Amino acid sequence: MLSTCFGSACKKKKNATTGLKTKICGMELASPIGLAAGFDKNADVFNATLSLGFGFVEVGTITPNPQTGNPKPRLFRLPDEEALINKMGFNNKGMLYVSKNARKPKLGIVGVNIGANAKSINKVLDYTSVFECLAHLFDYVTINVSSPNTKNLRDLQKPELLEKILKNVKSINVSLKSPVPIFIKIAPDLYKNNIIEILNVCEENGVSGLIATNTTISSKTLKKPTSFEGGLSGKPLFKPSNNILRLLAKKKNASTALIGVGGIFSATDIYEKIKMGASAVQIYTSFVYNGPRHVKKMEVELKKLLLNDGYSTIDSAVGALLR
Ligand SMILES: Cc1cc2nc3c(=O)[nH]c(=O)nc-3n(C[C@H](O)[C@H](O)[C@H](O)COP(=O)(O)O)c2cc1C
């Protein structure tokens, strides 16, 4: 990092082009800003969203069988809080439908987020089925064990269950012609010791990275706390998700990658997560509030922030606050 630089050396650095191209787990991203899971549930529009400036998109969550999700209404805006509450419940057309869409040429990095059916009698095996069907068609796979909208799904974050899921998918992954990076997406509503346990299981079972975090079930960070059913995203999630990210960044092995998600509304928010240890980030709620130009606008701002601090790459800023 060139935090203090003087004279011509400094000018030279500042004139150098700061690009947003970066790499995570061997994947080359045009930008570190990704679209979080839940927007393109069935992999119908990944090329359209990539063309809005996203460096990568995550489709899903996909379950083995199609399901309609929870009854409507199931998505609510809280404009004063810059937040959303959703209780969608993995509405999706199932893995076979998605496997057809996934064969289309892709304009960038596309990951798939996988989950279990609400009525499944063996949720652990659902992950194996979707992984087997879809992993080879995408650039990476995210194991979603953190949605609050499928009963008992978050219990799969318990070490013994998570380990079973990981062992199953890993055995398929190693047999693929090109094994894919595997990420685990975790909840923000976890105690410190749970997070360390999850991290340990991930690192012992060949997980490439963690995505922190999914939506929260807590109303604690709302300006006007009210009880609700479902998952809260947007501004009130920024701090809780950062708390998890910071802890993971401190405790993880150097080779474990982190993707920061939760409450990002600006380039400053992105930069904070990057400096905390995220190699890439994802957004959802601010995209809903701010529309399609939001991503490219934040990219311009992010470049300025990096340049101001003398960073010529994203990578050089990752974890700066830990050093
Ligand atoms: C309407 C809606 C649907 C979502 N569906 C999923 C999903 O299917 N799978 C998943 O892993 N996360 C899902 N999420 C969570 C987001 O991917 C993200 O983790 C969360 O919204 C926090 O980011 P944000 O504050 O930028 O929105 C959903 C979020 C929203 C608002």
* Tally of domains: 1
* Helix percentage: 25-40%
* Number of contiguous helices: 11
Cα shape: globular
CATH superfamily descriptor:
Aldolase class I
Please identify the top-level CATH class: Alpha Beta
State the strand order across the main sheet. 3-4-7-8-9-10-12-13
> What is the straight-line distance between the termini?
10 Å
Average pLDDT, rounded to a whole number, is 93
Residue ranges: pLDDT <50 for 5 or more in a row?
A: 1-16
CATH architecture: Alpha-Beta Barrel
CATH topology: TIM Barrel
The proportion of strand residues reads 15-25%
Structural class: alpha/beta
Protein architecture, described:
- Helix content is 34%, strand content 18%.
- The chain has helices at 7-15, 46-50, 95-101, 123-134, 159-173, 192-204, 238-251, 267-276, 285-290, 294-308, 314-317, and strands at 22-24, 27-29, 33-35, 56-62, 75-78, 83-86, 109-114, 140-144, 182-186, 209-212, 231-234, 257-261, 280-283.
- α6 (192-204) links the parallel β9 and β10.
- Flavin mononucleotide (FMN) binds next to β4, β6, β11 and α9.
How would you summarize the topology of this molecule?
Blueprint lengths: L6 H9 L6 E3 L2 E3 L3 E3 L10 H5 L5 E7 L12 E4 L4 E4 L8 H7 L7 E6 L8 H12 L5 E5 L14 H15 L8 E5 L5 H13 L4 E4 L18 E4 L3 H14 L5 E5 L5 H10 L3 E4 L1 H6 L3 H15 L5 H4 L6
Parallel strand pairs: 3-4, 3-13, 4-7, 7-8, 8-9, 9-10, 10-12, 12-13
Antiparallel strand pairs: 1-2, 5-6, 6-11
Helix pairs in contact: 4-5, 5-6, 6-7, 8-10
The structure holds flavin mononucleotide (FMN).
Flavin mononucleotide binds next to strand 4, strand 6, strand 11 and helix 9.
